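Support request, priority: normal
Reporter: lab tech (M.K.)
Component: structure prediction queue

Hi team, I submitted a job for Glycosyltransferase RgtA/B/C/D-like domain-containing protein from Chryseobacterium indicum yesterday, and the status page still shows it as pending. I've pasted the exact input below so you can check whether something in the sequence is tripping the parser. The sequence length should be 447 residues. Please let me know if I need to resubmit or if it's stuck on your end.
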Amino acid sequence: MQNLLISQSMKFKEKNIQISMVIITLVMTILRFLLNEKGRVNPDSIRYMRFAHVFPTIDNTTTPLGYPLAIKFFTFFGFDEFWGSKIVGISAFFFILFFTWKKKFFFRESVVLCALFSFLSIFSYTMSEPLILPFVVLFLYVSTLIIEGKLEKGKAVFYLSLSLIALYNIRYSSLFIMGGTGLFGLIFWKRKYSGIFIISGLIGGIFVVLYKFLFIDYFNENYVSQFLEIGLHPTSKLLVELFQGLCTTFNPFIHIADPGGGMINYAIYGIGFVNILLIVFLFIKYKLSETESFYIFVSVFGIICSYFIQYFYSVNAIDYRLMAPFSLPVWLVYFRKLFMVFEVKTYALGFLSLLSGMLFTWLSKGNYLENRKEMKQFLQSEKLDEIPLKFYLETTEDLDKIQVAELMSTINPNITLTFKPSDTLQKTTLTRYKVLQKIKIDKNKYQ
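Reply from support: The job had stalled in the queue. We restarted it manually and it finished. Here are the results:
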């Protein structure tokens, strides 16, 4: 009787911890973009919001349709594209928690995962990563049912193929998850479920080929030739970026290094590296199950492919955001092992991450709502708030100048970047100088 009471007390205590963590994470997610001078958007966000704004016109094929359509969906309820993107992120956060709770599938681990400052930052971002994360969880769940023999034959192939195709329609890098799934089936071909993984991987691959010829080539037949270029970066540079990217990806507290360098980066990379060593140690000491082995296999395969594609495809350096779909399974398995060892004490890691996130957010705070108000007044006064705009930049590396365009896109998403000086003669082409002549933008100290 006493043991039963202790068990019930522990469950009640853990439930309260989980509720507290979820509430704090939600509040922090909202503050993360409100206390940012441009609302947590970047140059790619401009493309996503413009795509959603002009749809059903196909604006570009650089991105799949999934994320822009998700933003578009919420505009039917009266939200603009910016706020729609934030609802997508928060909805993804709630879906992960609800689904894992309902299915009793890594729920405790998911609560801590979502509280990590890096994932919290992703949910607050106007990017496709927030949307892909719940689909990664669905993919892992379907794969688990197949490995455990609860989903078989044609039904298993259908659901696994569907999850892979859904992932690809959100981010092209999901091609690596398809490849990892098929390769896992080939390597372990003697296992009962291997055929399902191979067939599903092939179906996903066929979809990618059809997507390329029927969609991408239809709207932009030069897409592949424009983006493929051998020898983009030297190995010496890519290896350093890989190390730094993995150390920030698996740093549970701070996921952004100081671009200017300095001693602080040694601490950031150091914590991440030590955590990677701890992950490896726990995975060796506490043997991985078949499902956990599959998760890690797909994750490592995705990371390796993300590294090698940089040799011929222009992408950003490896970081926490690009690695999120591949790091998520690793984090889930890692937290499962930590719960085995430390039980409810594992939640402390989530709270410490939230605390570091609060400190970082406060130190680097800007005022998005005030900046939005200023920019909106400017655009309305110039009668530029509802018409297609251009924003002139000399180069894509003009990060300081592009921040003005990023803020502008949260009000009028129908904005395109231009690099032609002649375009600046047009009234509908804006420059940083033209805008900052008339308004003042509140900027944080840490750029």
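The chain has 19 helices and three strands. The CA atoms of residues 282 and 337 lie 7 Å apart. Let us know if anything else looks off. Ticket resolved.
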